[in-house]
Design a protein that fits this description.
Blueprint (H helix, E strand, L loop, with lengths): L2 H23 L21 E7 L4 H5 L10 H8 L2 E7 L6 H10 L22 H4 L2 E6 L4 H6 L6 E5 L14 H17 L3 H7 L4 E7 L1 H9 L4 H24 L6 E6 L15 H4 E8 L17 H5 L9 E2 L3 H9 L20 H28 L14 H16 L3 H23 L3 H27 L14 H21 L4 H8 L1 H10 L1 H11 L4 H23 L2 H11 L1 H4 L2 H4 L1 H15 L13 H25 L4 H29 L6 H13 L11 H18 L8 H22 L27 H19 L24 H29 L4 H22 L6 H46 L1
Parallel strand pairs: 1-5, 1-6, 2-8, 3-4, 3-5
Antiparallel strand pairs: 2-7, 6-7
Helix pairs in contact: 1-17, 1-35, 7-10, 9-10, 14-15, 14-16, 15-16, 17-19, 17-20, 17-34, 18-19, 18-20, 22-23, 22-32, 22-34, 23-26, 26-31, 27-28, 27-30, 28-29, 28-30, 29-30, 30-31, 30-33, 31-33, 32-33, 32-34, 34-35
């Protein structure tokens, strides 16, 4: 297999491995074909008003101010008087889309759907809005349309403001909320003159949804502890107080309106959300009006947290719920069928109706969840061979009939408490059964992926040993496995798997995961002679030496894995790397380079110890980084000029790039100053920022092709962009990292010098425009494993040095304010991702330079990197369990995704490099033929 084909196959294999984690753990929980269920008794309310304060934290809402008064006096009065309150516990990811889906549809959406957009539905789902007779909604264009699109018919009406209003630089983001209240007021005023609308407003089973985005916008822009955020709570409270009076006046105090006030997610102290911090997962829930219990006085109540004392609400009963429980509550209040895919359990403590109504509603809730269980079981049974099918033993068909028959009998006998208890047991078992069938194929799929992973890694190791080392050949005359016999055996295995999947009507992705190990292990088995050669070579080394090498390799990989969970491990690793010259002979032979290496590692080791989040922006540190960049660049240019004269065009380009660094630092300072004064994002600053980003991909290509000159130009371009995306100390990170990479390039030359002067290239003489002399490419040595390990370690350091990309809330949205302030999740996400990748690119360039300067094939070094990253990915795959919190499962999966993304990115670069190299060699040959 040639190099291009090998990397192309590797890319396909890793894409399959990458996709597998989503099929195994992130599949949609939705099923269709259920019968809707509702309580047979008349509901307490004719209409429901749902108010969602986007991004409102529970503590920010409930905690009184320093002098004891509430910043939400109207809603505080509801809590202490005629309403019920508690905490709604959200689930990771704490983002707007999944939060609203849980609230209104009652289920926790497939996590991967967060990346598929806010404005359209990856899958259609039922909701309280869809089951209502009519729903009117006001608010953000990012949230409202997805519930209108998911509804049948045209009975869900949306009124949204322009997307441009969602501006983090706005003088007063609470105007987003006042717009909603004003529009609702105008809507009711217009209804008085519109008889058709008036008659529809008098009907039952109607819903009013008010999405209030101001708090989320102010929280991102100014932090939840800011005056803007606190004042926005007052604006919301005043708006709700006025809204309630409109409803009472319009409906003539008929007592048939239920109000529910809550939030989709909270927000961290540093103004972000997405992960599982309590400030993100704890949101307020307050309900009052028709069918809702009034405040209940209690002598004492116990919760794991100490919020009751802090909130001064010890004497008022607190009723906590899961976020998905709110959907069945709203359905019961207005008497509509519960959303078909809801997994929420009706919180009976909120209902003020009699025991009969409560029992009937909970029974409808149990039947609705049981319907999903039946459909899920039928689907899985239909897709599985009868002798392979293992049913959920705790809820067989006979038990289902017993449950429903007993509940019906108990309700008829007016033994409501027993009926409620039995309904809770049925709901618990049905939810367990849903989870059982939802994860039914995980063992099979996981085993297939692991088998393929181990086979691929084994094959790569064998390829490295066969093509890039000098293994001792096995003795002649040894019997070989017949290639045709081996091929027939594996073809037979592939056919058996295909038939098995066809009979079970499995999805096409199952074929990829199950069949991939077959050709991979066929390739491994064909290389059995290489394996026997390896065993023969290993036998020549002492057992202690082999065991020591294995131990070092295992500890090295475990160190890399631990860095994903504890950033401080990076500091330990960098301190250990600092001792490398001391443990070798480098410290004696290259004292200056060794000293620079030790200092670089120590300086870089400080970054993982610094706080990722919770820090205030500091433009002074960014300006300091720009100044240091200028000083170091000027010194480097002066030193290189004295060593070898430069063309004036190259010198002019470097001076312009250095001036550009100064300009970017000034733009950042100006932008943050303007936003602090609430004057918006200056147009000039925005133009400079986008122009800098675009030019960073082009300007380095115009620089000299000499090694260090090209690297300097690349660094200056990337640093300019990074400055614009920085808010504090992280602006110094690429500067320190680049310095260490330059030292690494030089110190690796000293390791080559130790092996013999003839093997060393002069770094200043390397030109990227020249063809590499293939005759000088050498075989792998033990030192090359160390180089590859260093590369992987530095790549991880580049990822986690100033943040944790496994957690959405580790990055400050203020990082992108030089480019845009109007909410655009995909553009903002892309900019933050490029900020993460800039240090990655710096390490990549340094590693490529080391590969060239040490006269080693890029394929051989990359294969070692591939083995290391695949072992790490396999490690994370085993860490993912079917149990534990969603945060724990999501964290392990995100680590797997990070490693696989890194590997795929490297493979894509390798394929492109091979294509470009092949094209260049082809053109060179054509030119030679032409001149001949």
């Amino acid at each position: 297999m040639n190099v291009l084909a090998f990397f192309a196959v590797g890319l396909v294999v890793h894409v399959v491995f990458f996709a597998s984690i989503f099929d195994i753990y992130f599949t949609s929980p939705l099923v269709h074909g259920m019968t809707p269920h509702t309580a047979p008794l008349p509901p307490p309310a004719k209409r429901l008003v749902l108010l969602v304060a986007d991004g409102l934290r529970a503590d920010a809402f409930y905690r009184p101010e320093a002098h004891g008064t509430s910043r939400a006096p109207f809603l505080r009065g509801i809590i202490e008087g005629k309403g019920s309150w508690g905490v709604s516990h959200t689930r990771v990811p704490t983002e707007s889309r999944p939060g609203h889906v849980a609230l209104i549809a009652g289920f926790y959406e497939d996590v991967s759907a967060v990346a598929k957009g806010w404005k359209e539905n990856p899958v259609e789902f039922d909701s309280v809005f869809n089951e209502s007779r009519t729903t009117w909604s006001w608010g953000s264009p990012d949230i409202l349309p997805m519930f209108a699109k998911g509804a049948t018919g045209d009975h869900v009406h949306t009124f949204t403001y322009p997307a441009e209003k969602e501006d983090f630089a706005a003088k007063d983001a609470s105007k987003l909320d006042t717009w909603v209240f004003d529009e609702v007021k105008a809507f009711f005023e217009s209804a008085k003159e519109n008889k058709t609308l008036l008659s529809r407003l008098r009907e039952d089973k109607i819903v009013f949804f008010l999405h209030l985005l101001g708090l989320d916008t102010n929280g991102h822009a100014h932090r939840p502890m800011s005056r803007d955020y606190q004042e926005n709570i007052r604006v919301v409270d005043a708006g709700i107080a006025e809204l309630v009076s409109w409803f009472e006046e319009f409906y003539e105090n008929d007592g048939k309106t239920s109000f529910v006030f809550t939030s989709d997610h909270g927000m961290t102290d540093w103004g972000s959300h997405g992960a599982g911090h309590p400030s993100e997962t704890l949101t307020p829930l307050l309900a009052w009006g028709a069918g809702i219990k009034s405040a209940q006085r209690v002598a004492e109540q116990h919760f794991e947290d100490n919020f009751l004392q802090e909130w001064k609400l010890e004497g008022v009963r607190r009723l906590d719920v899961n976020q998905a429980d709110i959907a069945p509550l709203m359905s019961s209040l207005i008497g509509v069928p519960m959303p078909l895919n809801s997994v929420g359990t009706l919180p009976l403590e909120y209902l003020n109706n009699g025991d009969h109504f409560r029992a009937e509603c909970l029974y409808a809730n149990a039947l609705q969840i049981l319907e999903q269980f039946k459909v899920k079981m039928a689907q899985k049974k239909e897709m599985t061979l009868s002798f392979f099918f293992t049913p959920f033993h705790s809820l067989r068909e006979s038990e289902q009939e017993v449950f429903t028959r007993n509940v019906t009998s108990l309700i008829q006998q007016q033994r409501y408490d027993e009926a409620i208890s039995l309904c809770h047991a049925l709901i618990r078992l049905a939810l367990e059964g849903l989870a059982y069938y939802h994860t039914y194929d995980r063992l099979f799929l996981g085993s297939s992926v692991v088998l393929g992973f181990v086979g691929w890694t084994s094959y790569v190791v064998l390829v490295v040993l066969k093509t890039h080392t000098s293994l001792r050949k096995p003795p002649a005359g040894r019997e070989e496995i017949s290639s045709s016999s081996l091929g027939k055996a594996f073809v037979g295995i592939a056919l058996l798997i295909t038939v098995f999947l066809l009979i079970q009507a499995s999805p096409w992705t199952y074929y990829a995961y199950s069949l991939l190990p077959v050709p991979v292990w066929y390739a491994v088995c064909k290389e059995y002679r290489t394996f026997t050669s390896l065993l023969g070579s290993v036998s020549d080394y002492p057992l202690k030496q082999c065991a020591g090498f294995v131990l070092v390799a295992v500890l090295g990989v475990e160190l890399l894995v631990m860095t994903f969970f504890y950033r401080a491990v990076l500091t330990v690793g960098l301190v250990a790397l600092a001792g490398w010259p001391v443990m070798s002979t480098l410290c004696r032979r290259a004292k200056a380079e060794s000293a620079r290496w030790i200092l670089g590692c120590v300086f870089l080791a400080t970054f993982p110890l610094m706080p990722v989040v919770g820090r205030e922006p500091s433009t002074s540190l960014v300006i300091c980084a720009a100044a240091l960049t200028l000083v170091i660049s000027a010194l480097f240019l002066w030193k290189s000029r004295s060593a070898a004269p430069q063309h004036w065009k190259d010198s002019s380009l470097y001076v312009l790039q250095m001036f550009h660094v100064v300009l970017c630092a000034g733009v950042l300072n100006s932008t943050h100053s303007s936003l602090h004064q609430k004057q918006g994002l200056p147009v000039f600053n925005q133009l400079v920022s986008w122009a800098t980003l675009a030019s960073s991909f082009i300007v380095p290509l115009m620089s000299s092709t000499r090694l260090f000159q090209r690297l300097l130009s690349l660094f200056l371009s990337l640093e300019s962009t990074y400055l614009l995306l920085s808010t504090g100390y992280e602006a110094l990170f690429p500067l320190v990292l680049s310095w260490l990479m330059f030292v690494w390039i030089n110190i690796e030359q000293e390791t080559i010098k130790i092996q013999g002067p003839s093997s060393k290239l002069k770094l200043s003489g390397i030109d990227f425009s020249e063809n590499i002399d293939i005759s000088k490419i050498r075989q792998l040595r033990l030192d090359d494993i160390r180089r590859s390990y260093f590369f992987v370690f530095f790549i991880i350091t580049a990822f986690f040095g100033t943040g944790n990309i496994a957690s959405i809330n580790s990055f400050d949205p203020a990082s992108v304010y030089c480019f845009l302030t109007v909410f655009n999740p995909f553009v903002m996400g892309a900019l933050m991702m490029w900020k993460i990748l800039i240090p990655f690119v710096i390490v990549m360039c340094a590693f490529e330079t080391i590969q060239v300067s040490t006269q080693l094939s890029s394929k051989s070094l990359f294969l070692i990197v591939l083995v290391i990253s695949d072992i790490m990915a396999l490690h994370f795959f085993f860490l993912v369990k079917d149990y534990g919190s969603w945060l724990d499962i999501g964290t392990s999966i995100s680590h797997y995704v990070i490693v696989m993304s890194m590997t795929i990115f490297l493979l894509v670069l390798s394929v492109l490099a091979q294509v470009l190299t092949s094209k260049r060699i082809y053109l060179d040959r054509r030119m030679k033929l032409h001149f001949t």
